[in-house]
Amino acid sequence: MDGLYATMTVQNPYLDDASQPLRFWANKYKTAFNEDPAVFSVYGYLVVDSFIRAAQKAGSNLTTESFIKAMDTMVIPPDIFGSPEATYGPKKRLGNNQSRLSQLQDGRWKVVSDYITH
Fold this sequence. Notes:
- The chain is an alpha+beta fold.
- The chain has one domain.
- Helix content is 36%, strand content 19%.
- The protein contains three helices and six strands, in the order E-H-H-H-E-E-E-E-E.
- The chain has helices at 20-33, 39-58, 64-72, and strands at residues 5-8, 75-76, 86-87, 98-105, 108-111, 116-117.
- A hairpin with a 2-residue loop joins strand 4 (98-105) and strand 5.
- The radius of gyration is 16 Å and the shape is globular.
- The model has no long low-confidence stretch (mean pLDDT 92).
C-alpha cells in the first residue's frame, strides 16, 4: 500500500527510529506489551499522560470541576512523538486544530508535511 496518505498528529513509533527518545519509548512498549507500538499506542499514552497532568494539577480533592479547571489552564507542550502544543478551554475541547500528512513509503509511515491548521 505504499503511496497511501493519512493525516496524523504524531508520528508512528518504530523500534529502530532515528530519534533516540522515540526509539527508547517504542522498545519499552514492545517489552511491556509484546507487540510493536503503532500510532494508536501513542494516542493512548498521550491521553493518559494528559489526564495524569491535569489530575495532579487539580490536587488531592479531584472533582469533575477541578479537573476541567486544571485542563482549561494547562499548556501541554510538544513531545517526543511530534505532537503540537495543546491547550483547552470552554470552547476548545480538542487540544489543537493541527495535523500533518504522512505517507506509507517502503511499508513505513513517513511524515511528509509540516503541521497544517484546519
